[in-house]
Amino acid sequence: MIAMSAAGNSQVSYAFLKKTSLFRGTTEAELPTLIGCIAPSYREFAKNEMILRQGEDITAVGMVISGRAQIIEEDFWGNRNIIADAWPGDLFGESYAFLPGELLRVSVVAAEPSLVMMIDARHMLEICSSACRFHTRLVQNLLAESAKKNLALTRKLSHMSKRTTREKLLSYLSGQSLAAGSDVFEIPFNRQQLADYLCVDRSAMSNELCKMRDEGLLSFERSSFHLKSEIEL
Amino acid sequence: MIAMSAAGNSQVSYAFLKKTSLFRGTTEAELPTLIGCIAPSYREFAKNEMILRQGEDITAVGMVISGRAQIIEEDFWGNRNIIADAWPGDLFGESYAFLPGELLRVSVVAAEPSLVMMIDARHMLEICSSACRFHTRLVQNLLAESAKKNLALTRKLSHMSKRTTREKLLSYLSGQSLAAGSDVFEIPFNRQQLADYLCVDRSAMSNELCKMRDEGLLSFERSSFHLKSEIEL
DNA sequence: GCTGTTTCGTTGTATTTCCAACCGATCCGT
DNA sequence: ACGGATCGGTTGGAAATACAACGAAACAGC
Predict the structure, then answer these.
(1) Which of B76, B125, B150 lies at the smallest CB-CB distance from A227?
(2) Which DSSP state fits A67?
């Protein structure tokens, strides 16, 4: 992304942008028109500098161009909590930017010296004379990203709302099985990562998995699982 | 909604539509053009009839016009779980419709005799000659709804990812306090509802609340809370 | 083959949570 | 004032979970 090009900022290449989730599906030929139309602004941040502050009312979506941003939450007593990392190409503030009046519940801080692109939400939505086709693509991408995040959150929540470790595991594994369309499937986590995802203790989870295996509910080997239907029992 | 009007279906009134989250902000004068442009289809369902089936790949967003739909999830072993109710004006399938190739993980069933409006996702996004301004409003509403849901899910998840009941409570109460902009605030739940929201046992939660009150962390009376900063201790 | 690391299962104990049940306070309509 | 219902706090025992620690197996680099 540190290359020659336009977009109002010489450090942002179209080759980089067209691969981001926001601009995916546009060609390098289309980008100049689109970028010209949505008129992004650019800002550089030093390490540990605040990009967005809790309590602000933002109307622009941010995208990390280079460096890295951290989304952090500060509670009533001042305890800080890192929610997520935003790497080059990642968006931030996209949920708040489309909800005028909704105050930021998180802060965004540059974890390294970073370049950030800010795009006003209205520029993404309102129709201009020339670039409607590209706008459509932009909006599609935004909706798709939002929908994807929504599904991921809904799924995680549906597992976490279960009370016991066993139920959480079965909810997760059942979902993976249905997604794979088979009773045999691989999961993308090792035990520690799965425990973190389900917010339970690793050893307790491991224990529960083995109990279920001994009861004949399922079998597994590393990250490969096999759910047994009652007929197989 | 059982009234005289157009929209390709005589049972759907513009007065009803303009109040829904999807069409909010449009006037009754604009609606005929917009509706004509997005070309929704209508289907009636008998009680207990399936509207959408788990495993389908949908490209249309649904809206309940009359009756009631239930979003249900069926796991690997066939256990059914009611995820949500969709009342007149509510959307369903909106996350999946914008993600081609993403197969439905839930089913939607009519809990009562229901009339449903189906709008193809492409019709909402693609630009037509006449109604661009209305399209923009539609897309704004969609993005806003998606963003709102996103924030609600993220918040709930941030509380539920805490391991103990005490941490869950503090996370929730801290968030409510920050949202209210005051250390004194009201919550929209009674004890049972709060316990359900945080997925914990009511009596254990009540216990924990009283312990924290005795420790001087906070005070409360019914649904009114007061968080104490360390200075006040 | 050796060694350090990672991963996963296992165990025991302390802690926490769940569950069922009960009680007092409050609110409601009559 | 009287039942009935709802709500919130309390309690005790059963069950589940967290936590710390250990050991075996698999793996990577040398």
Answers:
(1) B76
(2) S
* Distance from chain centroid for Cα B123: 22
Q: What pTM was computed for the model?
A: 0.91
- Chain B residue whose CA is closest to A199: B161
Residue B221, token pair as written in the block: 């009376």
| CB spacing of B160 vs A199 below 8 angstroms | yes
Going by pLDDT thresholds of 50, 70 and 90, the confidence category of residue B4 is very low
Instruction: Phi first, then psi: give them for residue B120, nearest 5 degrees.
Output: -65, 135
Q: In whole angstroms, what is the distance from residue A65 CA to residue A43 CA?
A: 10
* Cβ of A191 less than 7 A from strand C: yes
pLDDT band per the 50, 70, 90 thresholds, residue A30? confident
- H or E segment at B147? helix B132-160
CB-CB under 8 Å, A147 with B174: no
Neighbours of B96 (CB within 10 A): 25
Q: Which CATH class is domain A14-152?
A: mainly beta
DSSP conformational letter for B208:
H
The class (CATH top level) of B162-232 is mainly alpha
Dist CA A202 CA A187 (whole Å)? 16
Domain residue spans in chain A? 14-152, 162-232
Reported as a pLDDT band with limits 50, 70 and 90, residue A231 is: low
- Bridge partners, A156 (sequence order): none
Measured at the CA of B132, the angle between CA B130 and CA B135, to 5 degrees, comes to 125
**In degrees, to the nearest 5, what angle opens at C-alpha B99 toward C-alphas B96 and B102?**
70
Residue A203 (CA) to nucleotide C9 (C1'), in angstroms, measures 8
Q: What is the pLDDT of residues B143-187, one digit of tens each?
A: 999 999 999 999 999 999 999 999 999 999 999 999 999 999 999
